[in-house]
Amino acid sequence: MIKEKVIEVLAQYKDCAPEEIDVTQSFEELKLDSLDTVEIVMNLEEAFEIELKITEELKTVQDVIDAITKLV
Amino acid sequence: MSIKITGTGSCLPSLSITNHDLSKILDTSHEWIFSRTGIESRHICENGLTPIAAEAGAEALKDAGRTIEEIDYILCATVSPDYATPSLACMVQQELGGTCPALDIGAACSGFLYGLDMAQALIGSGKAERILLIAAESMSSTVDWTKRDVSVLFGDGAGAVVLEEGADLLAISIGAVGRAEPLFMKRPAGNCPYALPKSGDVYLHMDGQEIYKFAVNAMVRDILHVMEAANVSAEEVDYVLPHQANLRILDAASKKLPIPAEKFLNNIRGTGNTSAASIAILLDEARKSGTIRAGQLLVMSAFGAGLTTGACIIKWSKD
Question: The CATH number of the domain where B132 resides is what?
């Protein structure tokens, strides 16, 4: 459920199909820079009603899913 | 009692440095800077801040049809004056003349909005009839030019307005949440033998990601707040003049607001982030280009170190 929602938020931001998002990929591999990361984190915070800290450990989509799983 | 803007002026130093110029002295590139900020070039003061601040002030006075002797206060919004003391406002007074009180406002990038708020209070209380508000920065003197992260973002410049009693300012809201670590600049340590040793340098430091988040949230919140306070709808807003920190911040904020993105004015491409000066410069340029005309509704919004924020709604009355 969390995974699907994270993918949905990412796909919406990137304007691509959810199937194109591979959770093992890093933001860099998804061609997203540091400011894109902030915006996606902000969108995720809104979608999950949480506060998500941006840290060096948030490298891949899976890292984000894991971080959110701990919070909800 | 409200205030109106009776004159505007601005001054950018003649030296302009492009991203390509920077790529020769720093490990960076035009593509990197432009894609993340919307900045292509910025102006740099070669000879201090006072001359350009004074020139912007003189231009605003001329536009208002006023002399410096008719001014009751000189307020300067800045974090990068030539001297820690005297204030920039006093140095401007040395250039322009007059004997009125002169002082600086330290509210970082929100300084111009803080200045408008102070001016409204001074004019509203009867302490002043006419105020010269100058927002001026020499950010190039604050950043570490051996590092690429912050130095490429900023630029120098000055903007000014003359404020008098009127009915232009429909709503204004300023605020602060005291926190240093996301954006700060320390003073030199000094050599007091009794003080504990200080760590760190005197350059401007910024946590870009945290400021980005703060900025987008603050802009959205503050703009909606002043629109409600002035009972103004998104359709009625003619232009938004946001603090020019980063084009990506403006895009992100405009997407979350009911005001269409094309109403957000920007000039960051050729100026970089000029901190307190950015809205004042943008206002003067938009007037000179004929974009802003009498009768229009303008929204201004700023955010910066402090952390400070400010927003206002102006019914522009000057031709």
Answer: 3.40.47.10
